[in-house]
Amino acid sequence: MKSTNTSFYQKTEARQSRSPSAIVIGGGFAGIAAAHALKNAAFQVVLLESRDRIGGRVHTNYSFGFPVDMGAAWLHGVCNENPLASWIGRLGLPIYRTSGDNSILYDHDLESYALFDGDGHQVPQDLVEKVGKVEFEGLGELRSKDEEDEGLGELRSKDEEDEGI
């Protein structure tokens, strides 16, 4: 007759000899990096992602017949201390510096902003500055209006009234 204690001890010993396990929730850049680090530390890793793809905000949409970056198009702080910069370098991908301190989206330094078109040609600097000026003036006008937010249905009703529908 087999002792149940032996079976219990064998199972416990087998569990203790296995690698630790972890579940990582989210397949964006941070989740993938966490799963990679855990795997390198000898963990058994399961990564859970709710979408039908991994990558999080790092995604390029080709449904229009040309690539449209849906997020994570800029890498801020391109320097040796930024681990993403070294990964990009190892992959051989080009990095274009957009301002002296890489904070163009925060300080709106349009004079040192480099913008490239779909063919990789630099957009003339005067055009970048003109578009930026119009954009910021427009945002200022919107912010100065003290109106209540309107829902899509309300806006649609106004359009229909204007068109006599």
What's the count of strands? 4
Residues in helix, %:
40-55%
Domains (count): 2
The rough form would be described as extended
- Pattern of helices and strands: HEHEEEHHHH
Mean pLDDT: 74
Class from helix and strand fractions: mainly alpha
Identify the strand order in the major beta sheet: 1-2
The value of Rg in angstroms is: 26 Å
InterPro entries: Amino_oxidase, FAD/NAD-bd_sf, Flavin_monoamine_oxidase
Protein name: Amine oxidase domain-containing protein
GO molecular function, one term: polyamine oxidase activity
Pfam families: Amino_oxidase (PF01593)
In short:
This protein is mainly α and 165 residues long.
What can you tell me about this protein's structure?
- With 165 residues, this protein is mostly helical.
- Helix content is 42%, strand content 8%.
- It has 2 domains: 19-72, no CATH class; 74-147, no CATH class.
- The chain has a two-stranded parallel sheet with strand order 1-2. Strands 3-4 form a two-stranded antiparallel ribbon.
- It starts with a helix and ends with a helix.
Question: Which structural traits does this protein have?
Answer:
165 residues; mainly alpha; two-stranded parallel sheet; two-stranded antiparallel sheet; 6 helices; 42% helix; extended; Amine oxidase domain-containing protein
Fold topology:
Layout: H1 4-17, E1 21-25, H2 29-40, E2 44-48, E3 60-61, E4 68-69, H3 83-91, H4 104-107, H5 125-144, H6 152-162
Parallel strand pairs: 1-2
Antiparallel strand pairs: 3-4
